[in-house]
From TrEMBL:
Residue numbers spanned by region Phosphopantothenate--cysteine ligase: 15-230
Stated name of the protein: Coenzyme A biosynthesis bifunctional protein CoaBC
Organism: Actinomadura macrotermitis
GO biological process: coenzyme A biosynthetic process; pantothenate catabolic process
Cofactor (UniProt): FMN; Mg(2+)
Catalytic reactions of this protein: N-[(R)-4-phosphopantothenoyl]-L-cysteine + H(+) = (R)-4'-phosphopantetheine + CO2; (R)-4'-phosphopantothenate + L-cysteine + CTP = N-[(R)-4-phosphopantothenoyl]-L-cysteine + CMP + diphosphate + H(+)
């Protein structure tokens, strides 16, 4: 809500936000990456600071200035992000919001030396292995009083895929947005629907600044937090 900035309804709370996109190294100079800019995660961090929260921002490969008042932990890979997010979640976090685009797969073998091409020989295929699913891990652990929020990037069947993902991940809220080359990445605005595991009606957020979506997400989180001091 636009009132959030001066309501400070997150005062005394610790919130953890992940942002950006992980990079999965192939060799010392190359990686597999994705198009996440980190803008939505940074908007979440800024709005949470404005609402009075202590904020830990776990940032993967973003080219954005640190939000004032947040503690920023920079990471590169999904494995790094997992360690940083779980550590921050265990540090008395009231909410964890996974806005980062975490690579589903990483190269099976990391080469210590730069991969070279051999004249006349084709490239070797890159074998991939699956990364840990941080959000599913957060959702599967006992988290009394901790609100877990995921994002879902879908290119089609947005609602049906979102509902299935909400159930699969075991999170409390899932922010579903439609992605495409120009729809979301690197843009200052976003449009989404927020699904809840508790059966309450989906909240449709019209296209607008990423701060507006962030404030709606914090409204939904705040409504699910136990009263302070409990
Ligand atoms: N996520 C995560 N760890 C992963 C992959 C995803 O924590 N290894 C989180 C993302 O940060 C996001 C949510 O899970 O909050 C959903 O990510 P998404 O890519 O939409 O879902 P996946 O479960 O990876 O399914 P798929 O990519 O196959 O649609
Ligand atoms: Ca994925």
């Amino acid at each position: 809500s636009p009132w959030g900035a001066w309501e400070r309804d997150l005062a005394g709370r610790h919130v953890v936000v992940s942002a950006g996109g992980t990079r999965e190294a192939l060799d010392p100079v190359r990686f597999l990456g994705n198009r996440s800019s980190g803008l939505q995660g940074y908007a979440l961090a800024r709005t949470a600071v404005a609402r009075g929260a202590r904020v830990t921002l776990v940032a993967a490969n973003v080219a954005l200035p640190d939000p004032a008042g947040a503690r920023v932990v920079r990471v590169e890979s999904a494995e790094d992000m997992r360690k940083a997010v779980l550590a921050a979640a265990d540090d008395g976090a009231d909410a964890v919001v996974m806005a980062a685009a975490v690579a589903d797969f990483r190269p099976a073998d990391y080469r210590d030396a730069k991969i070279k091409k051999t004249p006349g020989e084709g490239p070797e295929p890159i074998r991939l292995v699956q990364n840990p699913d941080i959000l599913a891990e957060l959702g599967a652990r006992p988290h009394p009083g901790q609100v877990i929020v995921g994002f879902a990037a879908e290119t089609h069947d947005v609602l049906a895929n979102g509902r299935a993902k909400l159930a699969r991940k075991g999170c409390d809220l899932l922010v579903v947005n439609q992605v495409g080359a120009e729809l979301t990445f690197g843009r200052p605005d976003n449009e989404a629907v927020v699904l809840a595991a508790d059966g309450s009606a989906p909240v449709q957020v019209p296209r607008g600044p990423k701060e507006d979506l962030a404030d709606v997400i914090w409204d939904q989180v705040a409504a699910r937090l136990a009263p302070p001091g409990v």
